[in-house]
Amino acid sequence: MIPRYQRFIFGILLVASLVMSGALWQLRERAHQRLIAGEDSAPTSAPVVAPAEQATLLVANDGDGSLLTQIHSLPLPADPGARARAVLGKLLDLYAAPDAAHPVPGGASSVLQVFLLPAPETAAQAPSQYAPQTGPQLAVVNLTGSFAAGHPSGIETETLTVLSICATLRANLPRVTQVRFLVDGVQRATLAGHADLTRTYLAADALPAEGTHP
Q1: What's the CA gap between 179 and 169, in Å, rounded?
Q2: Is the pTM above the cut of 0.85?
Q3: Beta-carbon neighbour count of residue 199 at 10 Å?
């Protein structure tokens, strides 16, 4: 004869089993109805893709130490910081190409962030009358440590990289008047032993005059 407590436990397990079976059946029916109705939990709208626009790149050439203007069609985000990063990413992709006139490994992923801040006034400047939203900007370019580690060492090649970045920023974001560099979020003495990364660069000075080298 089965003890009463065992019959009681068996009854509880049986009821629980029936309840769970009913719940599973209801879930199955709901899933079936969603399938029939064509319901889909995935987003129905396509991801937003930035429209292609013309970007001006100042591309370094090791052969004659010049910065050459190139126009490229790129998908450029509306956000200025993201826009700057996209433009510099294309510039560094050109340097990472096998036939680059200024070969530097790394490519677009070498630019971690570009921060745009109100530019501090220099001693030669009069107090700015512009609002922060419309005044001159300081671009802080945060590069990866692997880019700096893999960059060819030499005063000319490092200087060309720095100047091309500054000039490209100025050409595409005219409010950028000054540029500073970080590597992995911290200040670094030089790019690869020569080009000074502790100073603030004046972006306009990096733009070559017509027919001249920087």
Answers
A1: 9
A2: no
A3: 11
Measure the CA–CA gap between 168 and 207, rounded to whole angstroms.
8
Gap between the Cα atoms of 185 and 113, Å rounded? 9
Q: Tell me how far CA of residue 152 lies from CA of 14, 81, 120, 148, 187, in angstroms.
A: 75, 27, 32, 9, 19
Question: Per-domain residue ranges for the chain?
Answer: 52-206
CB of 149 closer than 8 Å to CB of 190: no
- Per DSSP, what are the bridge partners of residue 140? 115, 180
Q: Encode pLDDT of 159-202 as tens digits.
A: 999 999 999 999 999 999 999 999 999 999 999 999 999 999 99
CA neighbours closer than 13 Å in the CB half-sphere of residue 76: 18
Output the DSSP codes for 128-140.
P-S-TTTS-EEEE
The pLDDT assigned to 39 comes to 47
* pLDDT of 205 above 70: yes
Token duo for residue 93? 């992709």
For residue 190, give Cα distances in angstroms to 111, 158, 159.
16, 9, 10
Length of the chain: 214
Place 213 in a pLDDT band, splitting at 50, 70 and 90.
very low
